[in-house]
């Protein structure tokens, strides 16, 4: 898949990414997209399995995502750096989730 440019969860800035759900995803963010992070396809699959059919807070706080949020799960299981504001839009764009009942909520499709 070609590199994509997308808005962050709150829409206040943009990031770029290579990859899609089912592949390793590399995020490019910050000024001039000079910072990079990678999440493995395996870690995304684990997240989708953990939240299958659920609605949860996206948890975009860089320092203290709410307990039970996607951000807290990612911080505990994948990477200390806050990436929920990047991963959430990809999950929606790739058809694995939708926006939830509030601006900070994401609803995962059943089946992981």
Explain the overall architecture:
The chain has 112 residues and is α+β, with helices and mostly antiparallel strands. It has one domain. It is built from 3 helices and 7 strands, in the order ββββαβααββ. A 4-stranded antiparallel β-sheet has the order 1-2-3-4. The model has no long low-confidence stretch (mean pLDDT 95).
List the secondary-structure elements in sequence, H or E. Answer: EEEEHEHHEE
Q: How do the strands line up in the largest sheet? A: 1-2-3-4
Whole-number tally of structural domains: 1
Radius of gyration: 13 Å
Main sheet characteristics: 4 strands, antiparallel
Number of helices: 3
User: What portion of the residues fall into strands of 2 or more residues?
Assistant: 25-35%
Low-confidence stretches: none
Q: What percent of the residues sit in helical stretches (DSSP H or I)?
A: 25-40%
Based on CA inertia axes, which overall geometry fits?
A: globular
Q: How widely separated are the two ends?
A: 21 Å
Structural class: alpha+beta
DSSP strand count: 7
Average residue-wise pLDDT: 95
Explain the layout of strands and helices:
Elements: E1 4-7, E2 14-18, E3 25-29, E4 35-39, H1 41-50, E5 55-57, H2 70-77, H3 84-93, E6 97-99, E7 105-108
Antiparallel strand pairs: 1-2, 2-3, 3-4, 5-7, 6-7
Which terms would index this structure?
three-stranded antiparallel sheet; alpha+beta; four-stranded antiparallel sheet; 112 residues; 7 strands; globular; single chain
Compact description:
The protein is an alpha+beta fold and 112 residues long. The protein has 3 helices and 7 strands. The radius of gyration is 13 Å and the shape is globular.
């Amino acid at each position: 898949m070609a590199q994509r440019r997308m808005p962050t969860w709150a829409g206040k800035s943009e990031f770029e990414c290579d990859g899609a759900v089912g592949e390793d995803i590399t995020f490019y963010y910050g000024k001039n997209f000079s910072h990079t992070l990678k999440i493995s396809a395996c870690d995304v699959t684990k997240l989708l399995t953990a939240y299958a059919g659920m609605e949860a807070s996206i948890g975009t706080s860089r320092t203290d995502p709410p307990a039970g949020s996607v951000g807290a799960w990612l911080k505990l299981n994948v990477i200390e750096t806050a990436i929920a504001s990047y991963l959430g839009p990809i999950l929606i764009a790739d058809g694995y989730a939708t926006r939830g009942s509030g601006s900070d909520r994401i609803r995962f499709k059943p089946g992981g």
